[in-house]
Design goal:
The chain is 34% helix and 23% strand. The protein has 348 residues and is α/β, with parallel strands linked by helices. Strand 1 and strand 2 form a beta hairpin. The protein is globular, with a radius of gyration of 22 Å. Bound molecules: adenosine-5'-diphosphate (ADP).
Length: 348
């Protein structure tokens, strides 16, 4: 059997960074991978303050290499560096002119993450704050639909993109800038580079809050954002059933591993109040969000019922906090906004 750098890297591609769906090779951690006189020599550089992550990566790398090259002796060395000094990575940085950046995330798609992000942004704006909302999903133009805009943003004299203004918010979507046909070719490193540049090329200032509506899951875009933007914290959206909670747990682990505080969970589609019989139906079960929040030791920031008005307003261009500001659902979002403010250390 011949052992080459390529075959070693190939074997290491089976090892995922703990909490992420991305492998340690594409993550750029593997700096040395070569056959040596005694077997295989691997060197990695890791930026983490948690020694158990290095331990887990080492263990899994050794197992993967032993499985791929049975009987060969394997030596894996991991060099742990402080985040900012690692291999040219700048580390999380502030976005110019923006006070507090909050990511809204979910493990699973379709749980109402964009609905929560949009209404949270509007609810924060109602407290007098200047708020921006950025759709970080290259492939799903939710924000454009939710705010009923097809407008293409313009650039200012410094070639920075001017966000579109709707309902008092500054809106931007990564999807605004790419043609309908191009997202499919934006993969891997290109997505990373595009994401890194994008948020800093927008003329956001001055903003008190910027809400980032992340794509669902724990892929390249999410990873790039948590690594390159200084986030005050993340809000995780889930529905009450077990499949969604399991994925919410993975999203939470991603933030924990990158030292981003999870501000709390929002449980969406918690129940349905039937207009004809006035009864409450727990369509996706009950208590899931509360149990998961307790498990993760974070607050349950709020529960949002299934509401026809919420779907209609979201799908027709005016999120519920602006379309029906006095509704119970709008009030629930206002309460979530004040809890979020408290969690980031601001007066509610
Ligand atoms: P995600 O961002 O997680 O993919 P969306 O916010 O786009 O999810 O929501 C998916 C669909 O579900 C949208 O049509 C939205 O209007 C609808 N929706 C979200 N939350 C609710 C709710 N509580 N009641 C009724 N419809 C909802």
């Amino acid at each position: 059997m011949t052992i080459s750098e390529d075959s070693i890297r190939q074997a290491l591609k089976g090892v995922k960074y703990p909490g992420f769906s991305r492998d340690i090779v594409s993550f750029g951690l593997v700096k040395q991978a070569e056959p040596s006189a005694n077997g295989i020599q691997v060197g990695m550089v890791l930026t983490t303050s948690e020694p158990r992550i290095a331990g887990q990566i080492k263990e899994e790398s050794i197992a993967a290499l032993q499985a791929a090259f049975p009987g060969v002796s394997v030596d894996v060395k991991i060099d742990i560096q402080a985040p900012a000094q690692a291999a040219g990575l700048p580390g999380p940085a502030k976005i110019e002119g923006v006070g507090t950046v909050i990511a809204v995330a979910s493990g699973k798609g379709g749980v109402g993450k964009s609905t929560v992000a949009a209404n949270l942004a509007l609810a924060l704006a109602k407290t007098g704050a200047k708020v921006g909302l950025c759709d970080c999903d290259l492939y799903g133009p939710s924000i454009a639909i939710m705010f009923g805009t097809q407008e293409r943003p313009m650039a200012d004299e410094n070639d920075r993109i001017i966000p579109i203004e709707r309902e008092g918010l500054k809106l931007m979507s990564m999807g605004f800038l790419i043609d309908d046909t191009s997202p499919a070719v934006l993969r891997g490193p290109m997505v990373t580079r595009y994401t890194q540049q994008f948020l800093r090329q927008v003329a956001w200032e001055p903003l008190d809050f910027l809400i980032l509506d992340l794509p669902p899951g724990t892929g390249d875009i999410q990873l790039t954002i948590v690594q390159s933007v200084a986030l005050a914290g993340a809000v995780i959206v889930t529905t009450p059933q077990e499949v969604a909670l399991i994925d919410a747990r993975k999203a939470s682990a991603m933030f924990e591993k990158t030292n981003v505080p999870v501000l709390g969970l929002v449980e969406n589609m918690s129940w349905f109040l039937c207009p004809s019989d006035g009864k409450r139906y727990d369509i996706f079960g009950s208590g899931g969000g509360e149990r998961e929040a307790a498990r993760l030791k974070v607050p349950l920031l709020g529960q949002i019922p299934i509401e026809m008005a919420l779907r209609e307003s979201g799908d027709t261009g005016r999120p519920v906090v602006s379309a029906h500001p006095d509704s119970a659902v709008a009030k629930a979002f206002l309460e979530i906004a004040s809890k979020v403010k408290m969690r980031v250390g601001l007066p509610a």
